[in-house]
């Protein structure tokens, strides 16, 4: 779990908000089909998903599909992405909307 230094508290009211490498973030649990870690700040006692603030947050698609989808967007293959992800259109459109922001 050495990569926890890359994370910071997501609570804007926390004194450690946005500060990485403070050793205040710990793994509280792992959940979902993508094995997302639920992180916990020892300072403010708030929990948040490791994907919070990223395009992967609440995507409900495997990370590989989201990455593939983004590659299609970057390459300008809008029609190809629709065919590739036809089984989950509403979810993938939500991911696209997040990516384009």
Task: List the defining traits of the structure above.
elongated; 3 helices; 2 domains; three-stranded antiparallel sheet; 101 residues; alpha+beta; 3 strands
Descriptive notes:
The protein is α+β, with helices and mostly antiparallel strands and 101 residues long. It folds into two domains: 2-49; 63-100, no CATH class. Helices cover 32% and strands 16% of the residues. The protein has helices at residues 63-75, 78-84, 89-100, and strands spanning 25-31, 36-41, 47-49. Strands 1-2-3 form a three-stranded antiparallel beta sheet, with no helix packed on it. Helix 1 packs across helix 3. The longest helix has 13 residues, at 63-75. The radius of gyration is 16 Å and the shape is elongated.
N-to-C order of helices and strands: EEEHHH
Mean pLDDT: 80
Q: In whole angstroms, how far apart are the ends?
A: 31 Å
Contiguous low-pLDDT stretches (5 residues minimum) are none
Concise synopsis of the structure shown:
With 101 residues, the chain is α+β, with helices and mostly antiparallel strands. It has 2 domains: 2-49; 63-100, no CATH class.
């Amino acid at each position: 779990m050495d990569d926890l230094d890359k994370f910071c508290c997501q609570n804007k009211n926390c004194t450690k908000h946005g500060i990485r490498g403070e050793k205040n973030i710990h793994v509280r649990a792992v959940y979902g089909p993508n094995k997302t870690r639920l992180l916990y700040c020892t300072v403010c006692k708030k929990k948040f998903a490791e994907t919070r603030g990223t395009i992967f947050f609440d995507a409900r698609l495997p990370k590989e599909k989201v990455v593939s989808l983004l590659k299609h967007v970057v390459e300008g293959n809008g029609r190809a992405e629709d065919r590739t992800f036809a089984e989950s259109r509403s979810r993938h459109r939500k991911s696209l909307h997040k990516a384009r922001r």
